[in-house]
């Protein structure tokens, strides 16, 4: 949405503050304001720029800028991010030295609306704030070069990274921390300070940290639970939202977690699967976004991304350029729950696959195991598959691919299920 306002500033308004009112629509995720001043030939004229909402000033850049943006989480320096509340707003102008002829100002206000979109990102990465090799700026550059939209900061047992990330970056930084103990690791997302003390020598201490983090609004993921070096050795009956089924390059440890997750689903549990590179430093098969979390989010914000993950609207691909898959049944998609009555009416499951290679295996799984399998033929990069839903607990999909560089057939994609009630 775009609004263009032309305002004539007369000589009597020299040195005054001028409000140019406009109405903020509902559902705006980010707004951008551009100022163009026509000075009718005179020089040294200055039009200072700022903005206010219904309650307060939201920013002022004077004559230093002719454009700015404000989002719910980020803004141009000099402006305050936060809620873009619908209602009366005003661009603030201050004209100076406009002389007897005055000037004309054109304001272009663009509104970027909240709308569902696929975003790709990283949910497990480290920096120099713990044992990572790269600074925040270096990590930002690498993530953007990989084409990612978001990056979770999950340094070990510290939260300092959550207070120093680049606030004006196009990358959405998700605050986080990896609680790291001798008996298991878990990530906390969405809260700058999920806990106060990292002394967790006992399971009771770990549960107390988790309890406090939950009270503060954190989302919790159990990390690489079947890792041979640092798996989850404590009881699985601990408060958590998600499980990291894919940590770094695909290997036997991940396969064990995938099997365990499938067993949880088959037992009737709804548990969101996530992945993370566990990036510390560049290695041949360890890079940001390997694997990539593709998230169907309502907004390009921390809140929007974490809400989408929590709903299970997520699939994992081995890399940003890896295969992609959407899975829908009528108005429902991965993460949603369909009633058995809808299934009985003959609802169809539709899978749209992109970025395929010849020989890829597309598998459709339920609690009964692999229900159907399709082998991708040569010169077939996309494929649409349709299956009639049956009385099952869930449907989920995988894509397996042969990787010549390692001489193995490995998981290339896994998606969260559509559930049936």
From TrEMBL:
One of its GO terms (molecular function) is 5'-3' DNA exonuclease activity. It comes from the Bacteria. InterPro entries: PHP_domain (IPR052018), Pol/His_phosphatase_N (IPR003141), Pol/histidinol_Pase-like (IPR016195). Residues 121-183 form the Polymerase/histidinol phosphatase N-terminal domain. PANTHER family: EXONUCLEASE, POLYMERASE_HISTIDINOL PHOSPHATASE N-TERMINAL DOMAIN-CONTAINING PROTEIN. This is Phosphoesterase.
């Amino acid at each position: 949405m775009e609004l263009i306002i032309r305002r004539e500033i007369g000589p009597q308004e020299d040195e005054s503050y001028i409000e140019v009112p406009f109405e903020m629509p509902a559902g705006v995720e980010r707004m951008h304001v551009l100022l163009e001043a026509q000075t009718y030939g005179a020089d040294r004229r200055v039009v200072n720029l700022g903005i206010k909402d219904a309650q307060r000033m939201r920013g002022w850049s004077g004559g230093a800028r002719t454009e700015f943006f404000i989002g719910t989480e980020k803004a141009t320096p000099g402006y305050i991010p936060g809620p873009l509340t619908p209602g009366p707003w005003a661009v603030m102008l201050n004209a100076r030295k406009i002389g007897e002829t005055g000037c004309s100002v054109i304001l272009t206000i663009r509104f970027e609306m909240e709308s569902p979109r696929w975003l790709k990102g990283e949910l497990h990465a480290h920096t120099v704030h713990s044992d990572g090799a790269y600074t925040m700026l270096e990590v930002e550059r690498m993530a953007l070069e990989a084409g990612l939209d978001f990056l979770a900061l999950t340094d070990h047992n510290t939260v300092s990274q959550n207070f120093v990330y680049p606030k004006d970056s196009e990358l959405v930084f998700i605050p986080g921390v990896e609680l790291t103990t001798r008996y298991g690791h878990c990530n906390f997302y969405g809260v700058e300070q999920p806990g106060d003390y990292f002394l967790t020598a006992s399971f009771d201490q770990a549960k107390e940290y988790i309890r406090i983090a939950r009270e503060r609004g954190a989302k919790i993921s159990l990390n690489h639970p079947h890792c041979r070096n640092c798996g989850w050795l404590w009881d699985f009956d601990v408060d958590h939202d998600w499980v990291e089924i894919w940590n770094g390059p695909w290997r036997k440890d991940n396969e064990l977690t995938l099997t365990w997750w499938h067993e949880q689903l088959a037992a009737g549990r709804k548990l969101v699967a996530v992945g993370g590179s566990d990036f510390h430093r560049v290695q041949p098969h360890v890079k940001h976004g390997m694997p990539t979390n593709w998230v169907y989010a309502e907004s390009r914000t921390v809140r929007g991304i974490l809400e989408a993950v929590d709903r299970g609207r997520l699939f994992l691909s081995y890399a940003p350029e890896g295969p992609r898959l959407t899975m829908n049944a009528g108005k429902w998609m991965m993460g949603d729950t369909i009633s058995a009555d809808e299934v009985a009416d003959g609802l169809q499951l539709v899978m749209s696959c992109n970025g395929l290679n010849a020989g890829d295996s597309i598998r459709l799984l339920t609690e009964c195991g692999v229900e159907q399998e399709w082998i991708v033929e040569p010169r077939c990069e996309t494929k649409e598959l349709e299956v009639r839903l049956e009385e099952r607990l869930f449907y989920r999909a995988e894509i397996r691919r042969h990787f010549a560089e390692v001489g193995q057939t490995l998981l290339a994609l896994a998606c969260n299920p559509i559930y049936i009630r």
